[in-house]
Design goal:
This protein has about 180 residues and is an alpha/beta fold. It has six helices and nine strands. Helices cover about 30% and strands about 15% of the residues.
């Protein structure tokens, strides 16, 4: 897109997102001109995030549904919190892959089949356990980041625990790293 046209679009439509069509990036241009780094693609992230948001609309499940699904063969419960918070307390049987460690190789090792049903949860699903589940701002909820990351890497069979649950009243079973083998 010529610079004058780009400037016009930005001035005429402040806050607009300009995403070039797939394959339109030339070898000498970066994906995200603002970053100056071809390995960082904000427009691509925003595009995939919007796709993931649409896909997520019917993927939030109740506590009872989460429990039922977690007991079915071929289902993996993924905890993307830090290793320390995971070790402090996590849903029984959950596998820890800390969000900063989600990458091509770690996903291939932990979840080699992209069709695996994956159940996710985060800090913002639980009340009365601020030690292991410290509250985040709703727009910074780890469920959102994790869902988008998994979607970006091609995992589409992802479901998210939806409700806010009191850890003292839930039917979910928890364990600490002392209770389970290191996963």
């Amino acid at each position: 897109m010529p610079r004058i046209m780009l400037l016009f679009v930005l001035l005429a439509f402040p806050g607009s997102l300009i995403v070039p069509p797939a394959g339109a990036v030339e070898a000498d241009r970066v994906l995200d001109p603002a970053s100056g780094n071809p390995a960082i693609d904000m427009p691509g992230f925003l595009r995939v995030s919007a796709e993931a948001a649409r896909h997520r609309e019917d993927r939030r499940v109740s506590e009872a549904e989460f429990i039922r699904m977690s007991h079915q063969p071929g289902t993996l419960v993924l905890d993307a919190r830090s290793r320390a918070k995971y070790q402090e307390l996590h849903i029984r049987g959950a596998v820890n892959l800390s969000f900063p460690d989600i990458a091509i190789e770690s996903l291939a090792r932990v979840i080699p089949n992209r069709d695996t049903r994956i159940l996710i949860y985060c800090n913002n699903n639980f009340l009365d356990a601020l030690g292991p589940f410290p509250a985040k701002l709703p727009s910074a909820s780890l469920n959102l980041s994790t869902f988008i990351a998994l979607y970006t890497y091609g995992y589409r069979n992802v479901y998210e625990l939806g409700p806010l649950i009191d850890v003292d009243e839930t039917k979910l079973e928890f364990e600490t790293s002392r209770d389970s083998a290191d996963r």
